[in-house]
Structures are given as structure tokens and as C-alpha cells.
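Same chain as my last thread, 154 residues:
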Amino acid sequence: MFDTNRSVCFTGHREVFHTDIAARLDALLSQLINKGYRYFRAGGALGFDTEAAQSVLRLQKNHPQIKLILVLPYPAQSEKWSAEQREVYENIKTRAEKIMYTSENYTRGCFHARNRRLVDEAAVCVAYLVKQEGGTAYTVGYSHKKGIEVINIV
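reply #2:
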């Protein structure tokens, strides 16, 4: 069982404009780890989600108590990605503590279901929000409605 009060979720755009995002994530996640957060929940998308998951895995070397949990929309989400993108994704999946799917197949609402589940089981939402549209804006808004602390890393 994962403790929601010690859980962090991630949401962000597929296009990341800041070249130092890995360093920013590592610094922020180190602070959260020092505050007692242990469970880091990523949605498995390209871009910020991938960066966030890789940051958790890097920090796990010095903080073996932290866990990466993947909350994915459906099993075949990477089928149209490039071979390199799929390789990175599969590596992240093999190193995750747990993988959950919100749907067995693609459905119109599977990404929103994934985003809601990320937030519903977290105390903090780390976001990379640069534009007020799309799934990231929805997830940040949902976090605010749920009373979840949002840290925008932009």
C-alpha cells in the first residue's frame, strides 16, 4: 500500500523548453525526499513525464527508499513512438516499482482518467505548465480543485 500523504505526481507538456529541466527536477525532488515524500507517480508520456521518471530513477541510487509508480493510460500507448522513445519508455517501465493502467485499450477518456488517478493518489503535484491548455492545464486545475499542492517547475 502506498501512502497518499507521502506521494507526488507529475504532469507536464510533451515539449520541454528548458534545457536544464533534469537539474531542476533533481533539485526539487531532493527537497521533497528530504521532507519525507517516498512515492513518485508518473503518467508515462513523452516529454516532462519521461524527464520526471528518469529523475526519480537517478535519485533512487542515493535514496533507495523512493519508489517510481507508473500510472499509464493503456498498455499500447507507445506503439506509434519512435524506436528510441520506446526503448527509453521500456527501460523506465522495467525499473518502476509498480505499473497501473487506467484502461485495457485506448478510449477517448483514458488520458483524463490517468491524470485524475495521478492526482487522486498524491499530496503534491509537480507540474511543468507553460500554456493554459491541454492535459497538463486540466491536471493542474484538477489538483487545485482537490486541494493538492501544485509546484510549477517552470
